[in-house]
């Protein structure tokens, strides 16, 4: 056996190590975070005795990696079918977004037939019990403990022998074998490594709650995301009841599924059909509204876009939007002004989505253009009409991804007319009962809207001319 002492320099942000000092971390690219932490011992050992020899892949039992439902269908959707025994799931999100409420609900549902251990490092067991009573998460199979010492947490796991362990949160647990306060890079690495090893060896699933930084990334070393099997991001506006759960990393399923939840005073409820949250009353015909279909992962959501155009009282008109990309909205306004002759250069323009949903994909461009044109014309769009497609600078409408899947969801919700780019349904058929109108540019889309007025119009008002 040979032993050699070499100095080690470690990044305080991500834990990356180097044998020499560098000004910039080679992993996270942060400046000034690499510091010398002492010496490391490099050892070479003789080959050890193999206790579990390798076997042919056909003889490996795949049932050990089968999903087991956690009782919350929307959470199962994100995980790929449920929790896998021995898997470790990291759930990250901003404070107060609803992580603890969701995981307590999951723990209670799993605890109806199996043993679940809920470790809270931020609240006492009595506080967790109070929340459980409020959301109806009281079950005999759910065990509560308030611990922040890693050794005690492992002892609790050995004593209870659970099928599921929830750690809330991993940044509050500390090990006495590592220097520093709970939450620093060394502590998080040691705690996560010990908990993951316990889960893999004993075969129980584990849910870890993780904090986030100001920019929304997961706090702690980057190695934490590499160690766990699944990374789930909890998103949502604090002023909205809607919560979206996305899988950023998933070793057991897809990463393009999204779970929708409704957070209210009595708990959190999964939404199997959340499109109704993003639509206003379709029986009221108001100028400046148009529906579209956006994709959250593989899930189509019907969203309503509202626009308001008013004469500006200041030299520089206002351009405000909520839930949409400001750059794309400004581009659509310029295209309407140049290619469709819309008199909105000296007008204040406000664009918003309904329900607090955020749209980032360009397939909503045509609906934004139709909503703004409807506001300028003071002519409502038919309540059963929607538009989808990307708008270019020359005014053309380009196809979007998954048009057939979007139209199927819209037809299910009662929409009967769809404005789509030309050739968008070349390889698929239109849904039964839906009229699909192909348009080549913004001007032709606006003409189609004007040719399909709603059944009831608002009171007669002065309408500015919109010249194609």
UniProtKB/TrEMBL annotation:
<dbReference type="InterPro" id="IPR014721">
    <property type="entry name" value="Ribsml_uS5_D2-typ_fold_subgr"/>
</dbReference>
<feature type="region of interest" description="Lon-protease-like">
    <location>
        <begin position="348"/>
        <end position="468"/>
    </location>
</feature>
<comment type="function">
    <text>Plays a role in repairing double-strand DNA breaks, probably involving stabilizing or processing branched DNA or blocked replication forks.</text>
</comment>
<dbReference type="GO" id="GO:0008270">
    <property type="term" value="F:zinc ion binding"/>
</dbReference>
<keyword id="KW-0067">ATP-binding</keyword>
<dbReference type="GO" id="GO:0016787">
    <property type="term" value="F:hydrolase activity"/>
</dbReference>
<dbReference type="InterPro" id="IPR027417">
    <property type="entry name" value="P-loop_NTPase"/>
</dbReference>
<keyword id="KW-0862">Zinc</keyword>
<feature type="binding site">
    <location>
        <begin position="93"/>
        <end position="100"/>
    </location>
    <ligand>
        <name>ATP</name>
    </ligand>
</feature>
<dbReference type="InterPro" id="IPR041166">
    <property type="entry name" value="Rubredoxin_2"/>
</dbReference>
<dbReference type="GO" id="GO:0140664">
    <property type="term" value="F:ATP-dependent DNA damage sensor activity"/>
</dbReference>
<dbReference type="Pfam" id="PF13541">
    <property type="entry name" value="ChlI"/>
</dbReference>
<keyword id="KW-0227">DNA damage</keyword>
<keyword id="KW-0378">Hydrolase</keyword>
<dbReference type="Pfam" id="PF18073">
    <property type="entry name" value="Zn_ribbon_LapB"/>
</dbReference>
<dbReference type="InterPro" id="IPR020588">
    <property type="entry name" value="RecA_ATP-bd"/>
</dbReference>
<keyword id="KW-0346">Stress response</keyword>
<dbReference type="GO" id="GO:0003684">
    <property type="term" value="F:damaged DNA binding"/>
</dbReference>
<dbReference type="GO" id="GO:0000725">
    <property type="term" value="P:recombinational repair"/>
</dbReference>
<keyword id="KW-0234">DNA repair</keyword>
<dbReference type="InterPro" id="IPR004504">
    <property type="entry name" value="DNA_repair_RadA"/>
</dbReference>
<dbReference type="InterPro" id="IPR020568">
    <property type="entry name" value="Ribosomal_Su5_D2-typ_SF"/>
</dbReference>
<dbReference type="InterPro" id="IPR003593">
    <property type="entry name" value="AAA+_ATPase"/>
</dbReference>
<feature type="domain" description="RecA family profile 1">
    <location>
        <begin position="64"/>
        <end position="212"/>
    </location>
</feature>
<dbReference type="Pfam" id="PF13481">
    <property type="entry name" value="AAA_25"/>
</dbReference>
<comment type="function">
    <text>DNA-dependent ATPase involved in processing of recombination intermediates, plays a role in repairing DNA breaks. Stimulates the branch migration of RecA-mediated strand transfer reactions, allowing the 3' invading strand to extend heteroduplex DNA faster. Binds ssDNA in the presence of ADP but not other nucleotides, has ATPase activity that is stimulated by ssDNA and various branched DNA structures, but inhibited by SSB. Does not have RecA's homology-searching function.</text>
</comment>
<keyword id="KW-0863">Zinc-finger</keyword>
<feature type="short sequence motif" description="RadA KNRFG motif">
    <location>
        <begin position="249"/>
        <end position="253"/>
    </location>
</feature>
<protein>
    <recommendedName>
        <fullName>DNA repair protein RadA</fullName>
    </recommendedName>
</protein>
<keyword id="KW-0238">DNA-binding</keyword>
<keyword id="KW-0479">Metal-binding</keyword>
<dbReference type="GO" id="GO:0005829">
    <property type="term" value="C:cytosol"/>
</dbReference>
<keyword id="KW-0547">Nucleotide-binding</keyword>
<comment type="similarity">
    <text>Belongs to the RecA family. RadA subfamily.</text>
</comment>
<dbReference type="GO" id="GO:0005524">
    <property type="term" value="F:ATP binding"/>
</dbReference>
């Amino acid at each position: 056996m040979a032993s050699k002492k070499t100095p080690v320099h470690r990044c305080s942000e991500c834990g990356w190590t180097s044998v020499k000092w560098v000004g910039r971390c080679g992993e996270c690219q942060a400046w000034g975070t690499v510091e010398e932490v002492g010496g490391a011992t490099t050892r070479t050992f003789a080959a050890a005795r193999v206790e579990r020899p390798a076997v042919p892949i056909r003889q490996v039992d795949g049932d050990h990696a089968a999903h087991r439902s956690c009782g919350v269908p929307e959470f199962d959707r994100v995980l790929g079918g449920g929790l896998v025994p021995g898997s470790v799931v990291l759930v990250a999100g901003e404070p107060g977004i609803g992580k603890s409420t969701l995981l307590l609900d999951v723990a209670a549902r799993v605890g109806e037939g199996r043993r679940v251990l809920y470790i809270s490092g931020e609240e006492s067991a009595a506080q967790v019990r109070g929340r459980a009573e409020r959301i109806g998460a009281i079950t005999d199979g759910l065990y509560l403990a308030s611990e922040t010492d890693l050794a005690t947490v492992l002892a609790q796991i050995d004593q209870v022998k659970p099928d599921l362990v929830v750690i809330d949160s991993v940044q509050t647990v500390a090990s006495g074998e590592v220097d520093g306060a709970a939450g620093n890079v060394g502590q998080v690495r040691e705690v996560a490594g010990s908990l993951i090893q316990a889960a893999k060896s004993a075969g129980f699933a584990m849910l870890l709650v993780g904090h986030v930084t100001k920019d929304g990334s997961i706090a702690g070393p980057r190695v934490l995301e590499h160690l766990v099997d699944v990374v789930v991001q909890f998103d949502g506006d604090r002023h909205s009841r809607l919560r979206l759960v996305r899988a950023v990393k998933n070793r057991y399923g897809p990463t393009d599924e999204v779970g929708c939840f409704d957070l209210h005073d009595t708990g959190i409820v999964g939404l199997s059909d959340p499109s109704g949250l993003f639509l206003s009353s379709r029986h009221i015909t108001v100028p400046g509204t148009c529906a579209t279909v956006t994709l959250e992962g593989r899930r189509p959501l019907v969203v309503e876009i509202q626009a308001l155009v008013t004469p500006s009282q200041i030299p520089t008109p206002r351009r405000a939007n909520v839930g949409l990309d400001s750059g794309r909205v400004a581009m659509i306004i310029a295209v309407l002004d140049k290619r469709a002759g819309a008199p909105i250069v000296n007008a204040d323009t406000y664009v918003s989505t309904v329900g607090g949903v955020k749209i980032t994909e360009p397939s909503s461009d045509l609906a934004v253009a139709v909503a703004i044109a409807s506001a300028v014309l003071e002519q409502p769009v038919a309540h059963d009409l929607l538009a989808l497609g990307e708008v270019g600078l020359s005014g053309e409408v380009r196809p979007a991804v998954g048009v057939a899947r979007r139209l199927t969801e819209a037809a299910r919700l009662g929409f009967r007319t769809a404005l789509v780019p030309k050739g968008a349904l070349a390889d698929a058929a239109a849904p039964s009962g839906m009229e699909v109108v192909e348009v080549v540019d913004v001007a032709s889309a606006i003409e189609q809207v004007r040719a399909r007025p709603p059944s009831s119009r608002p009171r007669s008002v002065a309408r500015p001319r919109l010249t194609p």
